[in-house]
Amino acid sequence: MNKNLLNTEVQDYITNNLKTDIHSILLGKNDFPNVSSRELVEQLESKGRAQKKLPTWFSTPNIYYPNKLNISQTSSEVTARYKAELMQGNTILDVTGGFGVDTFYFSKRFQKVFHIEKEQQLSKIAEHNFKQLGVTNIESINANGIEFLKSTEESIDWIYLDPSRRDNRNKKVYFLQDCEPDVTLHLGFLFSKSENILIKTGPLLDLSMGMSQLEHVREIHIVSVENEVKEILWILKKQYVGNIKVKTIDISKDRKNTFQFDVKELNESKVEYSEPMKYLYEPNSAIMKSGAFNLIGKKYGLKKLEEHAHLYTSEILIPFPGRKFIIEKVFPYHKKIIKQLGLDQANITTRNFPESVAQIRKKTKLRDGGKTYLFFTKDLNGKLIVIIGVKS
Q: For residue 257, which of 135, 143, 250, 392 is within the disulfide window of CB 3.0 to 4.6 Å?
């Protein structure tokens, strides 16, 4: 950690050059003898990424940033705030502290927070930033989180883990046993230290696999932001053996759409099918990830268009956790019919359709955008159809 980067003139330079081409900085004259051009670029790249993802850090003076990979891997403030609201107590230990965004929000819900980070540089950066952010109840410790847990006698209300999804060659991994630490190996030990565990996993982890590998799962939270799944949160309670609750949440600027159910309901729900009616519904990405394809239709009284398309319809418009459209026209899929519509642009979605969006655009010459939405899918008889809709 080069503290010269925190000098006033260097910080002013970083603030004033966020939009400057980094190649010109690398190749240009460097006026700071104790700071390399590469270090300047690293701060510029990471601070630039923090502007939307971490606005509190971005707007706080003298924040020290790690490399852009660390910034890309850290939770956003939106998701960190959400997961902090799931817990409260006296003490929480963040086993894989990283840049400390989650830890910062935990400090608002717990009296004492342990931020454990095995990488020395990142541990120092987080500790410095906590001070700049005015937080006084976080203790930063440079250590292996699991090893620290073995040595501590602290009473811990909650343990939080965000296992690294990168291997020793920096390649992405997706299975729990390939992450670091491997929570499937340490779960018994973790429960010996706390009765409550929260684990964050990536959006690609299969839910059924996670439930089979993790013990005493009480709740699963699937968190999406602006209709993009960002993380899956697993709440584990020592000796818990009851129903597993699944909660999906899509967070946007002006609302939070939630949908929740018990896992056992997935196998109990049946859905009715129908030709497209007046309105079309597309569940948000968190619901799609949950696998509640029949249940969502049942809960909202909707008919499904086709088994694998996961699009729904109704005659009366209802509130729904996803996109809603007024259906203007439905017709069999044929390039000539699409051309007769006289469109030059449209938003295209495919659902259980044999051609990709790119292939359709190439055939139809339709540009992306506009107010018209085209859904390429199948009807209940398996025939290829196109649905024209406008947002409701």
A: 250
Among 14-23, 126-135, 319-328, name the one with the lowest average pLDDT: 14-23
- How many structural domains is the chain composed of? 3
Instruction: Count, in order, helices (H) and strands (E) of the chain.
Output: 16, 16
Is the CB of residue 385 less than 8 Å from the CB of residue 332?
yes
Domain assignment of residue 16, given as a range? 3-70
Q: Tokens standing for 188?
A: 């018994």
Distance of CA 258 to the CA centre of its chain: 15
Contact 347, 317 (CB under 8 A): no
Query: 166: which DSSP letter?
Result: B
Of 80, 42, 77, 75, which is closest to residue 59 (Cα–Cα)?
77
Q: Choose among 231, 194, 209, 170: nearest CA to 89.
A: 194
What's the full length of the chain, in residues?
Answer: 392
Domain shared by 379 and 293, yes or no: yes
Instruction: Report the predicted TM-score, pTM, of the whole model to 2 decimal places.
Output: 0.93
Question: Is 310:288 a contact under the CB 8 Å cutoff?
Answer: yes
pLDDT single digits (tens) 211-235:
999 999 999 999 999 999 999 999 9
Which letter does DSSP use for residue 29 in this model? -
